[in-house]
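Standup notes
- HV: blocked on the assembly model, inputs below
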Amino acid sequence: MIREKIRQEMIGQEVPGKHNDKDTIRRSTPSGMQRRDFLKVSIAASGGLLIGFHFPGVSQLASAQQASPNSFMPNAFVRIGTDERVTVIVNHSEMGQGVYTSLPMLLADELDADWNKVGYEPAPVDPKYNHPAFGMQITGGSSSVWSGLEQFRQAGAAARALLIAAAAQQWNVDATTCRTESGAVFNGTRKLTYGQLVGAAAKLPPPEHVQLNDPKTFKLIGKPIKRLDTSEKINGGAVFGIDVRLPGMLTAAIARPPIFGAKMKSFDDSRARSMPGVRKIVAIPAGVAVIADTFWQAKVARDALRVEWDEGSMGTFNTSKMMQDFRERAKTTGVSVRKDGDAAEALANAAKKIEAVYEVPYLSHLMMEPLNCVVDLRADSCEVWTGSQFQTVDRANAAKVAGLPNEKVQLHTTFLGGGFGRRANPQSDFVVEAVHVAKAAGAPVKVIWTREDDMQGGWYRPAFLHSIEGGIDASGNPVSWRSRLVGQSIMAGTSFAAAMMKGKAYDPASVEGVDDLPYAIPNVTVESHQAEIGVPVQWLRSVGHSHTAFAVECFVDELAALAQKDPYQFRRQLLQKQPRHLGVLDLAAQKAGWDKPLPKAMGRGIAVHFAFGSYSAHVAEVSVTDGKVRVHRMICAIDCGQYVNPGIIAAQTEGGAIFGASAALFQELTFANGRLQQTNFHTFPVMRMNECPEIETHIVESNEKAGGIGEPGVPCAAPAIANAVFAVTGKRIRRLPIRMTETEAV
Amino acid sequence: MIAFSVNGKRVDLDVDPSTPLLWVIREQLGLTGTKYGCGMAQCGACTVHIEGEAVRSCVAPVSRATGKAVTTIEGLSPDLSHPLQRAWLEEDVPQCGYCQSGQLMSAAVLLREKPAPTDEEIDEAMTGNICRCGTYPRIRRAIHRAAAMAAKGGAR
């Protein structure tokens, strides 16, 4: 009791932006059934408003049921209250990329809402909220804004049409004589607010067609609108998965195998069992779970377990040996990915040639919020709270373990303390194990991974080796390029392999970013070798591009040096038929003052890359002192086509550059005897404030189709930095993270 | 029983004194704004104030708070009025937001001790707080902005 009281007194703050209950938990606990009841109504509704969306995935978008007498829900994406509040239901997870602002902006602009009255709410799991292109509920691929562009605008426009129709009916005038402004309908001097029209609008049939606004009239779209979710992220109010609390909830920590593929043989819990707060210790498929009253009790008891593991086949796995094997394999012909002309013959006839082998390590996503999941499993229902990027799959996997049909499982998406792809796990590893724990717990339970558990838990960006040979003619023009990549497939073995690999003998995610090499080179060969290794791998922010851009853009620099040309001008010349590459390249070079000299101890590097529908170029300025690379400034140019919020684009570009720079400078996962050698931030560092460069972002004005923004800022960072290191030291960086002791003088 | 105050309210708790303050704040007191990130004073997500000093609560046993005044993010201001919170809003600092409680609590001590911090002083005070989203440039700008606001008399 006293705890609750303290909590209320301590927290009692109004949180702008978020309109619903301040506490995610409260919405679904027995005392706060409103939302759950509403969902039932909403899902059951089939005869309500049907708004004709263009997307096949949401063509059944329906549900015009009243959420309550005090609100109106014309479609799945918006609810308007008699209190004038406009709640946008967002079907993408908020993990830093600003979807709780950019997607509501789209809807609010078409609705002509009062932006001060607009809030957000995470969507429940329902086919209505499927990604229109991917056919399931997922946040990934830098796709939230481009996939929601039409969807959210249409939803806003449809709601506005109904509100106008309701006002016109009340005034007995033609709807076309009415106009809207900032949350109200006007006719001459008469005015009815949206809140006043809620009851009447809910009774009207849906509009058959809706007219979207002329982009010239946009009030929000295209403007640097402040994020709606900042307030609750700076007062402790935002509820992340790890913050969810349920009445009677227990907490669990799990002892997982120290080696991938190891199996538990036996465990001794004689010490752990009698430790304070420990309720149950139980073997589950993921390992041994200790269920206790609090996390700390669970963690201390977990650490006191003695578990015997059957190490399996990975007990001798070493990454140094793996890279040796990769080097050998790269000497052999791989599966053909791309073949233009005859690269081998052109290379044989080239005036000058060069070969370079680039290597990148396994990487951890390392979200600030370690993995966690809360499960309340009952006889005929299961509720899950977690920061999911993959709702459809997570719910289905939870249902399978719970032995319930999908409809009996409700997944509540909390704020995500970073995602970067890790929270979209094809096997729902962190959800599935929590349901197993819940089966044993007999009470609602929260599983928390320690930082060490999270880092050692697998699903890394795969290590890759990328060997490139190239040649130039007597005038310095490249005539031949051959790339060979060796690394694990992310898609192979998942349920998405068929859809994503489309019958190809290679994984497109392994070679993306080199398979579409944009430079004008007449003879290009790209080959892939798929490595079979028992380390679980997964998409990490910018996926294949996170390594292909490094190899490609560093090798282009090497070719430029071979041709004795300026690396920027060399790229320009080879990108004459690629106007959008050229656009960002020129913009970054110009803003960086490419032609102006730098102080002697500093060097500049440049890189350009296309990924996730957007074009990006970076210029990095670095110095190297006592073998330590310092990045002073990064100038980023981005062309993501039509854009929604330039403030968020700048934030994502800055963050992407820092994410890429962290990997380039510091990060590497290594295995010795099957055991991961890194455990926490001290052995797998992230860039810190004192290491962070000045970053400028310049956005290309464009009417092209909208592209992504969460990932495109990452790939150019490493090659721009590596090329700058060459400019200042004359040493080529061919391995990440950059270690000046092992660089090659060229 | 361990007695101390949190955000001005007295608490008496029956808890193992070796339990990290972080978990007592989060689990016993239900103040979940203070975050767990590393458990070894590496990332700063758990930063709170004990008697006005920035402390990594993930490695501080709760016994360390005995008889002392603890302030968490929930107690930084009742209404987002702290100059840092206003500056954070102006600069649109957070991305995922998970590290921001710790960033703000570290910055609050910096600003009290150095009302007009230089970039070097910001580096020194903030380097213990990791942000995986990469909001550092905005944090830096927001600290400068908050300092300017406070100098103009906008601070409490």
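- HV (later): unblocked. The mean pLDDT of chain B is 96. Residues 2-75 of chain B form a domain with the Ubiquitin-like (UB roll) fold (CATH 3.10.20.30).
- Next: hand off to the docking folks.
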